[in-house]
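Wed. Picked up where I left off yesterday with Ribonuclease T2. The coffee machine is broken again, so keeping this brief.
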Amino acid sequence: MKKFALPLLLCLLTGATWASQPASGTFVASQRCEAYLSFRKQTNPGPAKAEPGREYRIREIDEQDYHWLRIEMPGVAEPLRWVPGDCGSVRDMDLAKPAARETRQSSAGVCQTPGLQDSYVLAITWQPGFCEYKLDKSKSKQKPECRAMDSGELNIAHFTLHGLWPNKKECGKNYGNCAKSDIQLSEETLSLVKPWMPNFQFENNFGNYEWQKHGTCQTGMDDDAYFRKAVTAVRTFNDSEAGQYIRANIGKSVERRELLETLKRTHPDAPNSFSFLCTDNRLHEIQIRLPADFREGPSLAGLIGPQPPKTRSAAPGECSQERILIEKSGR
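Structure written out below (tokens, as returned):
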């Protein structure tokens, strides 16, 4: 099978003018080079390197100058990595034709294709507010963790995991359900996750739902690694200055102004990454916008990344008043 150096190959390809696009083929490394999660930020946890003579499956190509390839590196943590094209050669390269790509974008298919996330949303729950006010009483009684809290069997005074959601901008809220595989968490992972996703203390229905709808749309982690990363991210916020401020006022209220100031001490634009959701101005959830290469723990700065959004739009159900009530666990 004939190989081409990437610059020569790209001279043979025409009509590609859109953003980073799906591609197929084989990349053959000719030298040892860095393999980045984000080539623009030069992030390479691990670190991972392409090895001379080894073949890698091509998943995507950067459209700006067609210099970067996204390849799959089995056995590497977060295995979808970007390498420079001049690090090797490509074989059997195939790019989506414009018309075909537009058809896929207009269909549901692209929004159920795993590994194409451009960011994440971390949804964390204030469980007492969620069980008491977000759900009506009939639904609350259907959730075993809410029943346990109501009876006093379970006392929760920290933030818990709702979900870690891979996001693809062009799909809006519809990026999900990329596979039907059920979770199969190890006992070690379950022990770690249970305090931070209390439904797991009674069943795995909600965890399985989150994995099938959201977790299957990323390809860098198996179910154990995905839930571990999500829990560590929740703990990062829980232990941050903002998380401590909220938890210090359980049964009372916090001031929106002071809450935003705690976030600004991490980064002036940090509040743009956060949406605080309320029912009757009682906190039940926080949604945090994260970059695709976010670093969970130990700091909030690493979680939201060095360049938080410059602007933000209001989310449905955001807390609207100056004081936000923090519900206490139990009756």
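Quick read: Residues 4-105 form one domain.
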